[in-house]
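Let us walk through a complete example step by step. Step one is to write down the protein sequence. Step two is to encode the small molecule, fe (ii) ion, as a SMILES string so that its atoms and bonds are unambiguous. Step three, shown after the inputs, is the structure prediction itself.
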Amino acid sequence: MIQQYDQYTEKDLAIWNLLFSRQQENLNDKASITYLKSLAKMKPVLNAKEIPNFEKINQWFDNETGWQIKCVPGLIPVDDFFELLSQKKFCSSTWLRSMENLDYLEEPDMFHDIFGHVPLLCNPVFSEFMQEFGKLGVQMKDESVRLIQLQRLYWFTIEFGLINENGNKIYGAGIASSFSETNLSTENAVNISPFDLETILTTPFETDHVQNHYFITHSYEQLFAAILALKKNWTT
Ligand SMILES: [Fe+2]
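Step three: the predicted structure of the complex.
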């Protein structure tokens, strides 16, 4: 599957522009500085003015951490997803939400996948964390209980993780790509626990509503160390 870039319409561009501009401003004082710096660094290939061109992004990454965007029709089997992650290939949809559904999605679209997930892939520590995550997923492909645990870890970090950088800051793509959740997740009333691997592995998640429980890490190194510790624990 390839991105059919010439199929995007003026309306798609207007939606992309609105989503990008609105969320960039919203995240300014709420996102992790590493995310914001990565977004700024990617500006030549990721900005409000043009729908992201995966070919250009892939070329840009050749001189960075080497990740590649792989087009997928939607959610794919977890085995395939981990296999691709282990090869530094991140899956993205190519479709974009409609103006009528700017804030609610049942499945991830290109704004979630690209704006939410891709900037941190140019951070070397986060990049290694993601690749190791994929490799461990591949090793656990026949271990259904552990696969569920890995999905929980993915959910509470890569999708909905917070990081302590002089306060609660966002790095999870599910929050970073959601205007309303960005505001909710940084409010004081929300339930936030310190990052703890054992707790996360035993905490189920629900996908059909805004999260009410987040885990906060103190550094990206902590995430990387956690995946290495899990690998050691499960494979030796
Ligand atoms: Fe996601």
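Step four is interpretation. The chain has a mean pLDDT of 94.
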